[in-house]
Structure formats: C-alpha cells, structure tokens
Amino acid sequence: MSTNLLSTSAATGFGGVVQEYLWNWENQQLRVVYETLGKGSPLLLLPSFSSVSTRLEVGELAKLLAPNFQVVAIDWPGFGESSRPSLNYRPEIYQHFLEDFVKAIFNTPITVVAAGHAASYVLQLAVQQAGLSKIVLLAPTWRGPLPTMGASQQIAGMVRELVRSPILGQALYKLNTTPSFLSLMYRRHVFTDAAKITPSFIEKKWHTTQQPGARFASAAFVTGNLDAVHEQSDFLELVQSLTVPLMVVIGESSPPKSREEMNALVALPGVRSVVIPGSLGLHEEYPAVVLEAVQDFLFSSEN
C-alpha cells in the first residue's frame, strides 16, 4: 500500500492536494483518490454512497472547514475517480478499506464527518478501534434504497445481478442514470431547492455515473448490498457502544422512512442533534448551514 501525488485541475477537485492511495483487496490493487485541504487537526470527510457519489459533493464543506482543520475527503472504492472494478461490492470491502486508510494516512486521533450511508462504517470503525476523537453524521442512513422501498433480499439480489450482467445490465443502468431520472431523484429526496438543480449541475452528476465500471458499486448500494447493518437495533447498538462524542445533523425535509430512523438515533442518550433545512443531500446543498450547526461541537474540547 502506498500513496502518490496526482496532478489535477479545478474541474476534478475542490482546490486541495489530490493523491491516490493504492490498496489491495483479495489480490487486486485498487486506486483510491483522496484530496487534502487546509492545516490543523485532521478531519476525515466522507461522502455518502449513491450512484453519483464523489468527494466533490463535500467539496464546499471541505473548503469551509479548511481554515481550522486539515481536511481529507475521499472517493470511495468503486465511486468517483477511484478504481471501479467489477467486484462483488459488499460491506467487508469498505470496512477493511476504511480501517486501513485511517491507519495509513493519520497518526493522531481524527474527527470524522460522514454523510448518508457512510454512517454505519464510521460507527463500526469507532467501536472496533481507537483513533477517532469525534463523529458528526450528516443525514445518516443505514438501509439502501430498494430495501427501504420494501424489496426482499431475493428481489434485490436479482436486480443487482441483472445490472451486473454485460449487455442488459448496461442498458438498465443507463436508463436509471439519465439526466431526467437524476433530476427527478434530486427533486424527490436529495435537494429541497429546485433552483439549485440546474442542467449543468445534473450534467456533472450524469458524467460521474457514466465512467467505466460505474454500475457495479452503484448497483450494490441501491440493492442494499452495502448495508453494513440490516436491523435498526444493530445500528442503534453501534451508537450505544460509542466512547467518543457524536453529533447528528438531520434535514427537516428528509424522506419519512429515513427521518424515522434518524429520530430513533437521536433519541438515544448522549447523542447531540440539530435539524436544519434540507434533505438527504444537505451537506452539498447547505454546506454553510451545516458548518454553523456543527462548529461548536467540532471546536469544543469536551470528550
């Protein structure tokens, strides 16, 4: 495992130093791209999992945090500019990756700010090993879209294998990542201000989905194969096992099922929480509001 410096342009990054982390999984080397901005105590910034997942979705938040932290934002394996091989993407990959990445890149305790589906992985990491000092979860989720809609594991598995298939899978994936479909999804449960869902914004998202191999990790996420836990009780048990401070940011317009899960989380003793405008994409839509909501928690010396 090693890290290399990459050249980049403003079009692909958010102004930081872009590097690659070479990571081995089952005798296959994966190239994981990450970007570092700012100076100060280390803060790991994790984008949500989605078909359009990329570190750029947390780029504006990274720039706001950079005056006070050394911010490291990643492209998850299988997403963004990282390698997208046709692996059987499953929780073990991301659990091991996150553990190895944190050990390789940081040598002091870190703050972690994680969006969406990254929540379970961060909580598992915090419970299993030292090295995390604070956690902020932004619109946390633990269950993928199809399971949330009520699809059984059998149905979800059939859909996943269909999308992974060579010809029909590519066609199905393209149908579900058209600009019009992406725009619809953003309007439904990602952004709340339709004026921000511009054609150029959607074009950038669409471009992300069309990279070679993009459908494999995306299909795993959508069908629930990246769900690190499968029951609400398991998710809440992770939180109850924490020994580090936790804050949760909830979008007031979150989808009803997701909001129920978030409410159950913040009802636990010791969990700090705040509700701000937005939905599941609040970290991208309202980065300044997010910073204002969490800065007291981030700068507090309480443990």
What's the short version?
With 303 residues, this protein is an alpha/beta fold. 42% of the residues lie in helices and 19% in strands. The chain has helices at 59-65, 91-105, 118-128, 145-148, 153-164, 168-175, 179-190, 199-209, 214-222, 232-240, 256-266, 282-285, 287-299; strands at 2-5, 17-25, 28-37, 41-46, 69-74, 110-115, 132-138, 246-251, 272-276.
Taking the alpha carbons of the first and last residues, their distance comes to 33 Å
- What average pLDDT do the residues reach? 92
Number of strands: 9
Count of helical regions: 13
**Class by SSE composition:** alpha/beta
The dominant shape is globular
Report helical residue fraction: 40-55%
**Percentage of residues in strands:** 15-25%
What is the H/E string? EEEEHEHEHEHHHHHHHEHEHH
Radius of gyration: 18 Å
State the low-pLDDT regions, or none: none
Characterize the largest beta sheet: strand count, sense, and whether it forms a barrel: 9 strands, mixed
Strand order of the largest sheet: 1-2-3-5-4-6-7-8-9
Care to describe what's here?
The chain has 303 residues and is an alpha/beta fold. It has 13 helices and 9 strands. The chain has helices spanning 59-65, 91-105, 118-128, 145-148, 153-164, 168-175, 179-190, 199-209, 214-222, 232-240, 256-266, 282-285, 287-299; strands at 2-5, 17-25, 28-37, 41-46, 69-74, 110-115, 132-138, 246-251, 272-276. The protein has a 9-stranded mixed sheet with strand order 1-2-3-5-4-6-7-8-9, sandwiched between helices. Helix 2 (91-105) crosses helix 3 and helix 5 (153-164) packs antiparallel against helix 9 (214-222). The protein is globular. The relative contact order is 0.14.
